[in-house]
Design goal:
single chain, 235 residues, alpha+beta, Protein Transport Mog1p, Chain A, seven-stranded antiparallel beta sheet, 47% helix
């Protein structure tokens, strides 16, 4: 898959990287990818396709959140969702995810309502930011998303996080959402995710981490002489 650096998304994505809304910091990703596969993606796609076919239950082969897995188009949808997550969060491996880890939304409007409700405070920050607030945030958001992916042609999916093996379960996380807008005709996926990171929890975690460091004392100097560089690196 190839990251698409689309002008309509650039300003929004830069803004959403870190938004201070008072009690928490919002961190967002708004990225578009081409579904054309090459290299490692193509190799992983073939492997996943075989695993999904052989490892799916009869029920999943006839019906799943991404469609009947007996059909190639449904398996491709699942693979695109997995590969998108792998690209955006390279420190995590999502290759073990399967159809049950995703959910198809009933329509665009439902996803829009959920996103809008989470971003009300963010809208206020946008309005007060010089050079950004000429138009309402949500209006800019959806017009830009529509320009990038053509919403009326999209299927919408969300990832059901297990909060343990992905970035959404971090200690300081208050809430999160993630949606995939998949346009089959354009062969393009737009991924939109936001996490609210508690300021208090983040500060406490940083404070705890700093207290856990061991600092050299006079006695440590002796150890340094005995163990050399290894002791210095450990400190």
């Amino acid at each position: 898959m190839k990251f698409l650096d689309l002008p309509p998304l650039q300003r929004l994505n830069a803004f959403l990287k870190s938004v201070d809304v008072g009690d928490y910091i919002l961190q967002g990703d708004l990225e578009a990818y081409s579904c054309k596969l090459a290299g490692l993606d193509k190799k992983l796609s073939k492997s996943l396709d075989q695993e999904v076919q052989t490892g799916s239950s009869p029920l999943e082969l006839s019906a799943s959140p991404v469609g009947p897995l007996a059909e190639s188009s449904s398996r491709k949808t699942l693979i695109y969702l997995i590969l998108t997550l792998n690209h955006i969060y390279p420190d995590y491996d999502f290759s073990l995810l399967r159809a049950q880890h995703f959910q198809k939304e009933e329509g665009i409007s439902r996803a829009e309502e959920a996103i809008d409700s989470h971003l009300l405070e963010v809208s206020k920050v946008w309005a007060k930011t010089p050079g950004l607030g000429e138009s309402p945030f949500l209006e800019c958001l959806w017009s830009s998303v529509d320009e990038a992916i053509c919403l009326k042609e999209c299927d919408v999916y969300c990832y059901k996080s297990d909060l343990e093996t992905d970035p959404f379960g971090e200690q300081a996380s208050v809430w999160s959402f993630n949606y995939f807008f998949y346009n089959r005709k354009m062969k393009r996926i737009l991924y939109f995710s936001c996490r609210a990171i508690s300021k208090q929890a983040a500060d406490e975690a940083t404070e705890t981490s700093s207290k856990s460091y061991n600092y050299n004392t006079d006695n440590d100097d002796d150890d340094s002489d005995r163990y050399g560089m290894a002791t210095e690196m450990d400190v």
